[in-house]
Amino acid sequence: MSKTIHHERLALLETIATEVLGIDTLEQTGKLTKDLHVIHIEDLAHVLEAAYDAGLVVGHRVARGGDTDPQTSQEVFFP
After folding, report:
1. Count of C-beta atoms within a 10 Å radius of residue 9
2. What is the pLDDT at residue 55?
3. Is 78 left (phi over 0), alpha (psi -120 to 50) or beta?
4. How is residue 69 annotated by DSSP?
5. Residue 14 and residue 51 in contact, taking contact as beta carbons nearer than 8 Å
6. How far apart (Å, rounded) are the C-alpha atoms in residues 72 and 58?
7. How far apart are CA 77 and CA 49, in angstroms?
8. C-alpha span between 51 and 40 (Å, rounded)
9. Contact of 3 with 62, CB cutoff 8 Å
10. pTM
């Protein structure tokens, strides 16, 4: 997997984490107060659902030969 694809995927996952959980970044800071988050199980389900939906959107585009840019968070419905 290229670094560009990895960074694009990470950016989409960060968008989901920010929108659903209020987590600013997925990068480790070395500070426990920033790196550890207690979340409700229902919120975890929402995050997993949003990530799954994003994968479906990107996969559909790739299969159709269209734009493979996963940055289109407008197509992912955040609970």
Report:
1. 16
2. 86
3. beta
4. -
5. no
6. 9
7. 9
8. 17
9. no
10. 0.68
Q: In tens digits, what is the pLDDT along the chain, a chain of 79 residues?
A: 567 667 878 888 999 999 999 998 888 899 998 899 999 999 999 999 999 998 888 888 878 886 545 445 455 555 5
**36/21 Cα distance (integer angstroms):** 12
Q: Give 78's DSSP letter.
A: P
The closest of 58, 23, 66 to 75, measured between CA atoms, is 58
Q: Which two tokens stand for residue 21?
A: 């959980």
**CA separation for the pair 78, 72 (Å, rounded):** 12
Q: Look-up: residue for tokens 């269209």?
A: 66
